[in-house]
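chain below, 141 aa
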Amino acid sequence: MGWVFQAPGLLPLLSAEENVALALRILGQPEAEATITARQALSAMGLAERAGHRGMGLSGGEQQRVALARALVKAPALLVADEPTAQLDTETARGIMAVIREAASSGTAVLLATHDAAATGLADRVLTMEDGVLGEHVGVG
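prediction:
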């Protein structure tokens, strides 16, 4: 299971690469292998050149992409994302949602909570809640 929250939640004393590799190390992957896999995940997010930077040295969008890389690097069966684009500019949000959509297309189940109408446009199924009433739209994305 992978998690992405509204706030990236990076460990501040670790670099972007170390934050991503940590998810693999917790699963028992050897350090060298985890580091290589983390570099590949960051490269896929367009962050290869930022891998050595700590969270505070990254923009908000870069931090969120590191958090997404950390969540997806272990190829989870389920990705839970709570407002992952809420604090991002439109272009960065589109990039984050494209990566999440790609993960879903590759077989990862995605549970996404959002207020972003553009994000719901990429979904296969959308459940809405308004004033405590649950609604459903199937085959959206």
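The longest strand covers residues 125-130. The longest helix spans residues 90-105.
thats it, cya
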